[in-house]
Amino acid sequence: MVKMHSGGSRARSQARRLALQGLYQWQLSGATAAEISVQLLASQKTRDTDAEYFEALLGAAIADSNTLEALFSGHLDRPLAQLDPVERGILLLGSCELRSHPEVPYRVVLNEAVELSKKFGAADGHKYINAVLEKVCAQVRSAEFKQGTRSDQDFSSPHSSSPQRGEADK
């Protein structure tokens, strides 16, 4: 029996990693979420994994894959069919989490997706993942996203409003 973790950032990160593996497997094999979940939980070291969160993410991402793909496909620079399975999996996972888990701050979702892309995706793929998921975030969490981008401006460099070199002498 898999020990269920109720949360914690490491346990959730592990759940996302495992969910990405499951989404990759689903794309290649067409197995059900339940079949993949049983197999991954039995074959992986899951002691530090929030298994409940993993199963929720994997199940929702597969069940809602058409809806989730509709959320991000308009922001792609290529047809959906040309996406690498890892990129597609990360975009499904990130879009699912943005849409279905408002308790998770959008910055956490974006950061986790970028980290998964750095670890498992193509070189510089994390930039692409971040750009696409930011656009999805602006759609599904517009108020939180707008608030966050305003906060980013508040923390801008103290030198950003200072005159350019030589301007103060004019």
What would you note in describing this structure?
The protein is mainly α. The chain has two domains: 1-63, Orthogonal Bundle (N-utilizing Substance Protein B Homolog, Chain A); 64-153, Orthogonal Bundle (N-utilizing Substance Protein B Homolog, Chain A). Helix content is 67%, strand content 0%. The chain is built from eight helices and no strands. The chain has helices spanning 9-29, 33-43, 51-63, 65-73, 85-100, 106-120, 125-140, 142-154. α3 crosses α5. The relative contact order is 0.11.
Keywords:
single chain; N-utilizing Substance Protein B Homolog, Chain A; mainly alpha; 170 residues; 2 domains; disordered C terminus
Topology:
Elements: H1 9-29, H2 33-43, H3 51-63, H4 65-73, H5 85-100, H6 106-120, H7 125-140, H8 142-154
CATH class of the largest domain: Mainly Alpha
What is the number of domains? 2
Q: Which architecture name of the largest domain does CATH use? A: Orthogonal Bundle
Radius of gyration: 19 Å
Continuous helix count: 8
Please name the CATH topology of the largest domain: N-utilizing Substance Protein B Homolog, Chain A
So what's the overall shape?
globular
Q: Which structural class fits the helix and strand makeup? A: mainly alpha
Work out the number of β strands: 0
Low-confidence stretches at least 5 residues in length (pLDDT < 50)? 1-5, 150-170
